[in-house]
Structure formats: structure tokens, C-alpha cells
Design a protein that fits this description.
two-stranded antiparallel ribbon
């Protein structure tokens, strides 16, 4: 998906676009997004708010490195892991969940 001028005016960032992009799990073949992975599958993981560089399928619970699956460089992996930590932390804060 390409970030259009209309999306940018609405406040959509490239990072938000990456976190909502749906990926197909190499293990089970079902689709999920990085946000779903962090907010649902990683919710009870103690590493979930420590800039984790893995993504976990919400369907089969298989874990994969972000690099090569979601992004193609270590720099993008680190940036996106940090972005997701902040995003999911804000989600928990705004909806009454306690951040870890």
C-alpha cells in the first residue's frame, strides 16, 4: 500500500502504514498485521515492551524475526520495533490496560 497525500493529511505515517500492513504467516498461511501481533499475540510476553525484534503470528503462535519478514534492514527493524512499543503502550494506556 502506498501512502497517498490524502492519507498523509489525515495523519497516517509510513510507520503506521507498515504496522497495519497484513502479512501471510510462513507457517500457517493465515494473514495478520504487526499491530495485531504486538497487541494480541505478544500481550503476555515479558519482552513485548523491550524493543522486541520479532513478530508472532496471532493464529499459530509461531515467532519470526522482523528483518526479512516485515523489513529488510536492521535499522528499519530497530525503528519499527521501537515505534510498535510506543504505539501499543499508548493503546494500553488509553484503553485501561497496564503497560508492562
Amino acid at each position: 500500500m502506498v501512502l497517498t497525500p490524502e492519507m498523509a493529511r489525515a495523519g497516517v505515517t509510513p510507520q503506521l502504514l507498515s504496522s497495519t500492513h497484513r502479512f501471510q504467516c510462513p507457517n500457517c498461511g493465515k494473514e495478520f498485521s504487526l499491530f495485531q501481533s504486538r497487541a494480541i499475540a505478544c500481550r503476555s510476553c515479558p519482552k513485548a515492551n523491550q524493543n522486541c525484534k520479532f513478530v508472532r503470528c496471532v493464529h499459530c503462535d509461531k515467532e519470526f524475526p522482523m528483518q526479512g519478514f516485515v523489513v529488510n534492514t536492521k535499522e528499519k527493524e530497530k525503528f519499527l520495533a521501537n515505534y510498535m512499543d510506543k504505539t501499543v503502550g499508548n493503546y494500553y494506556k488509553n484503553f485501561g490496560y497496564r503497560s508492562r
